[in-house]
Specification:
single chain, alpha+beta, Arc Repressor Mutant, subunit A, Chorismate lyase, 10 helices, 10 strands
């Protein structure tokens, strides 16, 4: 049998899903809700906490509880890398019209707010092993954040690494002001004679750190998906390494594997 707070949460959840309470609507005060359901404040607050944990409502300090606005969904599939490589040698005008974020979200370039920062760092043991270079090798560390202009949280948190000497032949690849780069990393690498051969992606999941939860604006109890992306060139060298933190409440991962017919 459902507990009292669960029945209250069920009723409010039904109202949200039926459209009786719309995104952005403010719920009645906790006092009025407790009176409506004829229950104590602790019971009512437990029901509201359940709905916040599900990401259906959010509490705004000093204002009350609001129906949470759905965030733009992100569909990441295994066709994205070939799609991006196919555009790497296209004219700049064509490359500038769209990118992987737009492909994954259905948004347009003008809908997005983009941020990039570069710095030179030394490879630690983990990253050096991935690149098969000595620890301390100079890297270009690139931090990216992209968000929908109508929202405040980025779609993900990206830190990407390139071996500095491998890309230094094109000074623009060391300059963050050249971002957003039409055609992304495949085109950047193409400018220094590197062709991508394959991309390996490894996924794990865990609870977010407090900093990740704050920046990604995650509902309580939401996990993050961690992606380690390793890009290899046609000489079997690792040419890019990316660590991507994906919010579990808005990211869908879809993989289609074509099977040989008998």
């Amino acid at each position: 049998m459902a507990k009292v707070y669960e029945r209250i949460a069920d009723d409010i959840r039904r109202a949200i899903r039926a459209g009786e309470l719309k995104p952005g609507d403010r719920l009645p005060s906790e006092e009025r809700l407790a009176e409506k359901y004829g229950r104590s404040m602790p019971t009512l607050r437990e029901a509201l906490r359940t709905l916040r944990d599900e990401g259906l409502i959010e509490k705004q300090h000093g204002r009350g509880n609001f129906v949470r606005r759905p965030r733009t969904r992100v569909l990441r599939d295994n066709g994205r890398h070939q799609w991006e490589k196919d555009r790497a040698r296209a004219p700049e005008q064509e490359r500038a019209q769209t990118g992987n974020t737009e492909r994954d979200t259905g948004l347009e370039v003008q809908d997005l707010v983009f941020y990039a920062a570069y710095r030179e760092v030394e490879a630690n043991e983990d990253i050096a092993a991935a690149f098969d270079v000595p620890a301390g090798t100079a890297l270009v560390e690139r931090t990216y954040r992209t968000r929908y202009a109508a929202e405040t949280a980025p779609f993900n948190l990206i830190t990407s690494y390139l071996v500095r000497d491998m890309v230094a032949g094109n000074p623009d690849l060391l300059d963050e002001t050249k971002e957003p780069w039409p055609g992304g990393t495949p085109n950047q690498l193409y400018t220094v004679g590197i062709e991508l051969d394959r991309v390996e992606e490894r996924f794990t999941a865990r609870p977010p750190t407090p900093e990740e939860a704050e920046e990604l604006e995650l509902p309580p109890g939401t996990s993050v998906i961690l992606l380690r992306k390793t890009a290899y060139d046609t000489r079997d060298r690792v040419v890019e390494l990316s660590d991507v933190t994906l919010p579990g409440d808005r990211t869908e991962l879809r993989f289609t594997t074509r099977l040989d017919r008998w």
